[in-house]
UniProtKB/TrEMBL annotation:
This is WDR60 protein. It comes from the Eukaryota. GO terms for molecular function: dynein heavy chain binding; dynein light chain binding. GO terms for biological process: intraciliary transport. PANTHER family: CYTOPLASMIC DYNEIN 2 INTERMEDIATE CHAIN 1 (PTHR16022:SF0), WD REPEAT DOMAIN 60 (PTHR16022). Coiled coil: none annotated. SUPFAM superfamilies: WD40 repeat-like. GO terms for cellular component: cilium; cytoplasmic dynein complex. InterPro entries: DYNC2I1 (IPR042505), WD40_repeat_dom_sf (IPR036322).
């Protein structure tokens, strides 16, 4: 609820890494690991901002931020084919009106 993200290992109750205020205090609505690239995850906050984290590039801050200005995004999920090396990765956004929007991710964050 405060924008903090914690990375846990299954064998420990304590986080390996923790990022406080990663969304400048906005509650996190959804967080998902990339299906095609294990070190990348995506975060959606309550202000319809999507943050892309690539832990191999920067483990302190997100590597990109995209605001969806037109309408409030209520949830997101990812689509892709992890068994294929084509690097196709998409973000499915569900908006408050019920509209669904699909955006494709740059190859540098999608290729295995």
């Amino acid at each position: 609820s405060d924008g903090s993200i914690r990375l846990h290992q299954m064998t420990s109750e304590y986080p390996l890494l923790q990022w406080n205020g990663s969304t400048k205090g906005q509650p996190i609505i959804a967080l998902q690991w990339a299906l095609t690239r294990p070190a990348v995850f995506f975060v959606l906050d309550a202000s319809s901002n999507i943050y892309i984290w690539d832990l191999l590039e920067n483990d302190l801050l997100p590597v990109a931020k995209q605001t969806i200005p037109s309408e409030k995004v209520v949830t997101m999920t990812l689509l892709g084919e992890p068994e294929k090396a084509n690097g196709l990765l998409g973000i499915v956004l569900a908006k408050e009106s019920g509209q669904i929007d699909i955006q494709y991710v740059k190859k540098k964050w999608a290729i295995p």
